[in-house]
Fold this sequence. Notes:
Elements: H1 5-28, H2 35-39, H3 42-49, H4 59-63, H5 69-83, H6 89-115, H7 122-134, H8 137-142, H9 147-162, H10 170-186, H11 191-203, H12 209-234, H13 240-250, H14 264-271, H15 275-291, H16 296-310, H17 326-343, H18 345-371, H19 378-389, E1 394-399, E2 421-427, E3 443-449, H20 458-464, E4 467-472, H21 479-485, E5 494-499
Parallel strand pairs: 1-2, 1-3
Antiparallel strand pairs: 3-5, 4-5
Helix pairs in contact: 1-6, 1-7, 1-18, 3-5, 5-6, 6-7, 6-9, 7-17, 9-10, 10-12, 11-16, 14-15, 15-17, 17-18
Amino acid sequence: MRMFGKEKIIYAVVIGIISIVYVVTAFNSHGYYHADEHYQIVEFAGIKLGTHKPFEVAWEYEEQVRPTVQPTICFLVIKMFTILDNSNPYWQMFCLRLLSAVLALTAIGLFVKRTINQFDNKYVRLGYFVLSYLLWFIPYLSVRFASESWSGLFFLLSLAVLLNNTSENRKKFFVAGILIGLAFLFRFQIASAVVGLCCWLFFIRKTKIRYFLVLFAAFLLVLLAGTCLDTWFYGRFVFTQWNYFHVNFIEDKASMFGTSPWYFYLLTLLKSPTYFVGIPVALSIVLLAVFQPKNVYLWCFIPFFVLHSFIPHKEERFLFPIVYLSPVILAMAYNQIRVFLQKRMITKVVSYVLLIAFAVVNLTGVVVVSQKGGGLARMCTTKYIYERYNDRSIRLIWTVWANPYKPWEGLGSKFYYPHDIEWGGRIEHLGELNDTLIAHDKENLLMIKKSDLELPDARELLRKNHYIFETQTIPTWMLPIINSGYPLSDNHIFCLYRYNPQSN
């Protein structure tokens, strides 16, 4: 992309703002979006760090179904902190999120560089550039040290390499094969998008077979390296890809965690990014399917989407590896109809109004996700406890499902445990608060769900038992914005109270 004068300055300023947004998001996004992001990576790393025993981590370790490249990266980063005598788990995780942000900025940057020249209008180019980094959910997903994000980013890098306009050569396909192999190691399900890409290369670009052989050879090298790493991590020879297929598809163990109808992802596509973004993305896919059926991004997106729709166990996060294609799909669809929208004044005005509304909603989303903790932000409260009470003995009491260290009442987030914590026990409701729960030689903390305050006289019970409010997972100012797009029930907002016998 060639830029001159004022345009070059504008892009430099924009990339500076984008970098700041990613660093701030990485700093504030404490914890994890989904349990797997923590329990199958960070807690797994504890095995090699010597802080965890096999029975203290998720069942996937015993079944040996997870690739270990990310737990190994996590192990190396935490080991580095240990050498530097820094045991703060929140700084360690910030470092991993920052590493994810650097990968994202690199992958998105290279992909945009390879694709931006297909837009001849400078305003469309700038819009595409900004949207590629700042479509509201992209910074949030890009700082996640999660398999979905890393797989999607490496797949994006492979697209950037293959879409390079230089002539086809072995080196390009070898590098692409390495990147695709890494994308596969981070998340096996990306294979469906890879198959779609290979079909496009074969049927549309007419790529020669010899280049496919180079790509496949590079892919196998990465797969071999991954197998060696898994064998080291698990302590015996293991082929995690087969174990994963056998456990989740032949034994259908994944369905134990719930099943959804085939149209689940259609609704997810519309609702999860908010309707202001979801509907334009869905319409853009339809538009490109009609007018550009040979579009490479559709050939990647549609197989991935369709295959996942047939798998009984469905989760919103399973679509995350291909969300990085959303900006280019939106921009190409808009570019397809831009001339038509400019022909009449009424369509021109309507399109500008919709674009402004889209921009406002998107900017609001970026502000929120840059300040919000990961997922339900449970670990924001544990960070608060660590920073304020880590030099004291702590006794924690909690209501049902409110313990941030053991959110599912079973397997704990041992990585985040304070150095001196005593489990005071679970109470069913605030009416069970009494003096016998208090340890007078410790700092007594109480974790509740916001819905627990719906109990008659709940606030009075807290006052009478000398509990004062400290903090909550989602800041009050953020709730109206979140609830306008993706409502949170009071069961998903958690509050921390401290016992203070001097309070009235």
